[in-house]
Amino acid sequence: MDEKHEDEAYYECDFAFAFNDSNFSDRVLTIEVMPDPDPLLIRTQSHSLTLTTISPNRKRRTHPLTKDDEDSHGNDSLLGMSWSKVLQVRTIHISSPILAAKSPFFYKLFSNGMKESEQQNVTLRIHASEEAAVLDLLNFMYSNTLSRTKSAAAVLDVLMAADKFHVESCIRYCSWVLRKMPMTCETALLYLDLPSSILMSDAIQPLIDTAKLFFATNYRDITKFAYEALNFPLAAIEAVLSSDCLQVPSQDAVYEFVLKWATIHYPKLEERQDVIGSRLSRLIRFPYMSCRKLKKVLTCKDFHPHLASKFVLEALFFKALSWCKDASPFFRHTGLRCIASQRVLNE
């Protein structure tokens, strides 16, 4: 099926005519736009949209805040945000069946038996930086299309909002739109650095695969782009080194590059050992390294000793088997007899 039309079912159910129309709505959604949190009080991620609030005494919120949330938790749950100051109020006529069908968040909001599920007027509080993305997301749930698709940043904002409200169809649509845009190093890095909740979604995997392919294709010669590659995050380095099209003079060069990159990004020895052992060592083809370099692996402090011994032993065993297969029958038979004789003498 054509990738563009992989969600044809959504296009067939176009309710754009009903968006914000009282004639086709059963509830009123009041959106209160609040000031963004102080950047000194909250650690923002690389994306431009921040959809979470943090309490000094509570874990970070993973769901949008409704009016009743504040009533139940009080003002102490809002991390110094000026929630009493409403910058703007928007009122939108909504159809609860349409929103509930597209979003588990709204489905739960309208059917959980709590006070807000019985009210016709529902209040949702968002940050000022979220406003445009949330409004576009609400429109998408009716029309299955976005109004802001000219810039990757705008689509990423909607993607973050879609993840927050669990609108899987919008995540899939944003992924498709972003894949159509020209891929650059900056945008590819943004895609690989999305929050883990988004990266685990199946809907976003095609975009992540495209970003990884960009790095694997454009930076396959790590000796030529060593300076740029040394500044890449872990996900980008894994994409480059795992490529079968990697261009390097030898696996010794890959080994040296991995150690240099890990030293820059993980200055603490224990952290460096962990990331090399769990993520990077599998990208080094030890059997194709020189024996001289394998000897250095055994004494390299950046590897856990037991892993270093394991990698070197497996590499030497592979080399021995390869030699036996490549040797002529006479020399292979003679070599094996010599090995057997030496073993008898040692015993």
Structure report:
The protein is α+β, with helices and mostly antiparallel strands and 347 residues long. It is built from 17 helices and four strands. The protein has a four-stranded mixed sheet. The longest helix is centred in the last third of the chain and has 22 residues. The N terminus and C terminus are likely disordered.
Please report the total strand number as a whole number.
4
Mean pLDDT: 80
Number of helices: 17
Strand order of the largest sheet: 2-4-1-3
- Helicity, as a percent range: 40-55%
> In sequence order, what are the helices and strands, one letter per element?
HEEHEHHEHHHHHHHHHHHHH
Percentage beta strand: 5-15%
Distance between the termini: 66 Å
What gross morphology would you assign? elongated
Tell me the radius of gyration: 28 Å
Which structural class is indicated by helix and strand composition? alpha+beta
Concise overview:
The protein is an alpha+beta fold and 347 residues long. It contains 17 helices and four strands.
Provide the fold topology.
Layout: H1 8-12, E1 27-34, E2 65-66, H2 67-73, E3 88-94, H3 96-102, H4 104-111, E4 121-127, H5 131-143, H6 152-164, H7 168-180, H8 185-192, H9 196-199, H10 205-218, H11 226-229, H12 234-241, H13 251-265, H14 269-280, H15 291-299, H16 305-326, H17 329-346
Parallel strand pairs: 1-4
Antiparallel strand pairs: 1-3, 2-4
Helix pairs in contact: 3-4, 5-6, 6-7, 7-10, 8-10, 10-12, 13-14, 15-16
